[in-house]
Amino acid sequence: MALRLAPAARTGAAGPVDGDHLAVPPPWWFTPAFFILVPVIASFTAWLLLVGWRSRGSIPASWAKLSGFAIPETPSLAGTLLLVVWYAAVVSVATWGWRVGLEKRPPAATVARLMTASFERRYFALIMITSIIGIAYSYYKIGSAQSIIGSLTTQEDQFTNALPGYAGVQTLRSATILAAPIGFYLWRKKVIAWPFMVFALLLLVLNAAIASRLSLFMAAVVYLVIWVKTRTPSAHTGSAVARRWIAAVVLVGVGMSLLAGLNYVRNALYYKDVGVTNPYVMNLYQMGAYLGVPAQVSIGVADAVMTATWENPGHIVTSSDAARPTFLQFQKVAKSDGLKDAEAYAYSVELESNFTTNSVFADTYAVYGMWGWVYTIGLYAFAGWAFARLFRYGVVVGASAGVMAHCLSEVWRTQNVNFGFVIFLLLLTVASAVAANLWCRRDEARDAEFSSRRSGSSPMPAQR
């Protein structure tokens, strides 16, 4: 797929700007508000559907285990207002950060350098090497093939818990989140051969076996950013629209099948114990609970805060831990130790105790109090800024904007802007870009010197 460079022009935040070199302007929805609010709306929609199903009376005997809660919370006007204000604050600061990040244009020559095939090939090679080291080390630490297969067929996160609980070589496996979508893009562009692309995708699957679905979802958002930066305008003819709808339906079908398969492998025993045997029905229940429980918890906690039945002001100093990078937290907590029940929320909400991430709103208040909200909301200003800054730099480097976009899309569920692997991916992006650029310059200087010797002239300086 050929890249087309647009002439430098500035038409505002939604249009092309100097130094972006976008083929077409980003679509209208490509903003922090979209990535934040769409999952939030999906969460509350899933909760409403579960509540509506329950109100009909024809529910399974194991309803609580299937939906994540036995009795739905009753939204109050005050609690609803608090949720609206809280999410509006997150969207506002993220949008402000996004706009600030778009204001400063990178040098056009720098962006042009980052979009050359030689740079992209070397950048991908560095990301791939990092991925290989991380995956190889992680599986070495996990152990034998028997333990690996056993971990896949249980509901406990034995993979993750088998790794050291601190930043180390195993953290490098997160590079697969960038390597796979970038490899697929470069293969389509005919910059790399297909075996490298397939190997990058395989590494991502191996990482997904350790990190569950998170790495797959984040890699998908990374590729979404690549698509936005390289898409070309198409005619809005009937056949073109039909092809897009067919492609969308196929992608949704494949995605649902993959999720159903992953869910069956990891959770089949759980669902069979409560009377569900169909893999696709299992997946529907899993998606319903996965989306609906954070809304259930948010509604209950918001009402408790507004009625003063649960007061947790936090502390101006200690609550700053809400924004502290997790790699500075040296004691790892296993997921099985992080399961939350009603006690975690001062009995302000009813839920099953097999969920660990029940919305940034509720979980931050439960641990860090109101001051934790302040620091967390401020963190999303950085997320919006980093999203915009990365997006401005070429395609393969700009793809890392998808990491921050995914962080924004997780507000409904969990706060991961300060997660160690997210910070690692940002640092890896910068380090690999610098190293690939130096690599290109060295090779150019060597080629120029070789050419000058053959021609008998003085060496030409490397192109800058």
Tell me what you see in this structure:
The protein has helices at residues 32-55, 63-67, 77-103, 108-114, 117-142, 145-152, 158-161, 176-188, 194-211, 214-230, 238-273, 279-306, 360-391, 401-409, 420-455. By secondary structure, it is mostly helical. It has one domain. It is globular. The two termini are 26 Å apart. Residues 1-20 and 331-337 have low confidence and may be disordered.
Briefly characterize the structure.
With 464 residues, the chain is mainly α.
Alpha-carbon distance between the termini? 26 Å
Continuous helix count: 15
* Radius of gyration from CA coordinates: 24 Å
Q: For the residues shown, what is the average pLDDT?
A: 83
Number of domains: 1
Q: What sequence of helices (H) and strands (E) makes up the elements?
A: HHHHHHHHHHHHHHH
Please bin the fraction of helical residues: 55-70%
